[in-house]
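User: hey, got a sec? need TniQ family protein folded
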Amino acid sequence: MIVKRLPLRVPHTPGEAATSFASRLARRNGVRRLVTFCSDVGLDYSQLMNGAPAEIERLAALGGADLHALQFWTPRLIGEGWFELGKASLKFTCFQRTTARVCPACLSNAHQRPVRDHGGHYGLWQLESIRTCEVHGCLLEPLVPVGHGRDAFDSVSLLDGYTPRLPTYVEENERRLEVWLIERISLGCGNGWFDDLPIHVAAQTAENLGALMTLGADAKRSEISARDWLRAGAAGFEVMRNGLDAMQATLREIQSLTPIDARLHRHRFRLFYNWLRDRDEDPAFDIIRDSVREYIWSNFPVAEGSIILGVPAPQQRIHTSATAAAASGVSRWKIEKHLIQRGMAWPRSNGQGVHLHAYPTAETISEITTQVDTMISATRAGEILGVTLATLRLLRQKGLVSHAPACPKGASYFEEGEVSEFLKKLRGLTKPESEAPEDAVPFREAALQCQTSLAEVVACVLDNRLPLFASVPAKARFGDLSVSIRAIRQTTTIPADEALSLGEASLRLKTDTRTIRALLEHGHIDHIQPFSDAKHRRWRVICARSVEHFRSNHVSLTELAGSRNRDAANLSKDLYRHGVRPLRLGEKCQRFFRWCDVI
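Assistant: Yep! Here you go:
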């Protein structure tokens, strides 16, 4: 069928949709409404809106436009709920077809031409996730609908009486998701993981994850501005392009910003979680939904059978102390005691329950229930070690043995396993009495002769693995052991301006030797090698300068709470709420924070 060209024509703008070209062509030929124009020239308006090939071909012939370009940038209905644009297939949810948007800069340029032009309306501008003009880098402005709903694609009529506003320009890095989307449509699918996702899944996931990252869980999607959606899309794109592991790492980071027992997943991820839950009828989102569900099951105390994103939890993997007690049959008090031992919790200031550092897993609870450690009184602990209660108190103050973390307030109980382990360490250093040097004496005598405390002598022995001596090493108790005076003195007579003993270092940092040893192990303070001869080279002491450097950059929770007249537990909770974490030193060690994080 031969179609005669119209006498008055307009140039087709690269990227312009067929409906926009037809609207401009109608106005150029003196027809005010696109619907009327289509009727006059024999075009099916409804088919043209949906990009029917026959109607686009006829329009191209009427207006003298390039058929391929006109078809390429016009959304074309290819099946129920699916369109084709450029080289991409897109679900209808990708489009915003009821409200037209325009570029203020494009309109201003068009109005300044010698022959007044209303400017083309790009096919890309029908996409929900395209919020800027690719040419000018400014936000698109929505047009107010006029007349009948069928005029939604009559771009020239929508512009009647419209005065372009000043453009709102955006940063290039805010358009990262848009750039990817335009390339996907114009050039085809890339090779990355993100490129393999359906476009509506990729774009919406990036935007909603990004909104959670940039605006928080409590932001309302209906109140988010176009500029904020743009920034959210860019932020989410940088995560999602690296795969599901990166997405889960982001969820973990967001989870860590709130104290562990304060809010569950629905509150921490509300915006993102609710959006994903509402996509439950679209199986294309299963890859995202499955990953998020798996993360929640593995990181939050979700009860067996609870519905998470449409699927009941097959088992409870993560627990609170209460659910752990119910599941294991072990008392909550004992569960909390072991969680404190493992560094996963600390007691509340009121003595009631604990604050969690991390949720215990089902495996952790299983380990706790199989442990046989029991709490023993101070009297019993003294009998095991063979020491008086006064000596036991000195050893506890030095951090060599410690109170059971969750023992009743004001009571003095010890973990039997820890007491036995302490004695085992001493026996492991013990040799037969026949090998003892002449200056070997019991611990208390060694403390007197070295002018130091008994606990300091014991700490020196353990830290430097000095040999001990007893008549029956395998059965020796504390009072049966002796140590060389010379060995002790060689490890403690180091100039104070160069090196410190563990006890001196603990005094300077106002902590215990257990924490000092942890600081050494993690490299926060340094050992030095004060002896040059090979015989003593294994003996190490602490570099004084490293202790002073650490003290100038760190503060203990106890000292910080005292300086602020705060309860330590409540202060710690506030710090966690603001994302401030202590140094990782292990269980039973005092917590230290960087000064720069708490000032």
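Quick note: The first strand starts at residue 76 and ends at 79. Let me know if you need anything else on TniQ family protein.
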